[in-house]
Amino acid sequence: MKKTRLNSNHKKLNGKMVDFFGWEMPVEYSGIVKEHLAVRQKAGLFDVSHMGEIQITGSQALDYIQYLTPNNAAHVNAERAQYSALTTPEGTFIDDLLIYLGEDNKYLLVVNAANVDKDFKWVSSHTKGFDVDVKNLSDKYSQIAIQGPKAVEILKPLTDVGLEEMKAFRVAFGTVAGIEAMVSRTGYTGEDGFEVYTQSNNPGKIWDALLEQGKNAGIQPVGLGARDTLRLEACLMLYGNDIDNTTTVLEAGLRWLVKFKKGDFLGREALLTQKKEGLKRRLIGFELQGRGIARSHYPVYIKGEKVSEVTSGTFSPYLKKSIGLAYLPIEYTEKGTEFEIGIRDRRVKTRVVPIPFYKHDD
Description:
This protein has helices at residues 7-12, 32-41, 61-68, 116-124, 151-155, 204-213, 224-233, 268-277; strands spanning 16-20, 23-28, 43-47, 52-57, 82-87, 93-101, 107-111, 133-136, 142-147, 171-176, 179-184, 193-198, 219-221, 281-288, 299-302, 305-315, 322-329, 338-343, 346-353. It is α+β, with helices and mostly antiparallel strands and 362 residues long. α2 crosses α7 (224-233).
């Protein structure tokens, strides 16, 4: 298994290590519920160094990214990041990602760990006609996320970056614990927080400094288990579950990141057609009315007929409800619509509810 540069730090903290798409990563330290609530109420620290980083440079780097993604990448600059997607000609997902712009017009695409090789191959295979250079820099970067209402309080003494004036999806370059880093006000938890990117060979210095600085504020190291329950409460997409190459950006409820007026991009015509003709299905949030937990791939029934499967589901540690996501026929996506989910040998009553399930107070 691959190991991040923080692997020994996790083991010193008695992290329970698992194989995550070929990476040895901590699934939990003190318990998923405890870690989840620490992020919602105080602060949590995550190693997300397994994520991938693909660099795009060249005189037509922006034009190329505009072609690959549906959002308007012209808004990306040295101080602003962007959430977007790599789309197929059918308007479905190769992956979702973050786009950054560093020095010398070097764009950085931050992609999901399980998709790095696939994404790099996809991005590299569409360069014909563009003056660009594509490099996979994933092995050079480490990424540490600090998330939660006390994130600013904990990170502030350790960095020369002005955190308080940074808005969501803003970026700054400076130092953290004396190490050069890029700091962005982004995350995958639904909480306020920051992600720290560094090419240092010793990111453990940042990790240890944050744990020490946040000790009295209640910071907890957090594993993959709570990362998943946190992102689901906030209704943040998980590739391979909620979005993939069979689901379009519009079906996933991400119409806001599709900018048709910017010009051509992969999937534009397919998405325009789908918009014109109307969706036949859409991703919805649900809440179980009976007992049980709806896990991924559990069958979804409407009027006794199976129509789809649960894409993501869990028992929410913060909301104390069984929640999840699924694609339903468009005529059954209104709030309050009732349907059933098969859990083992029974069918449990369920209803459509607004998403996100959780949103932090600004």
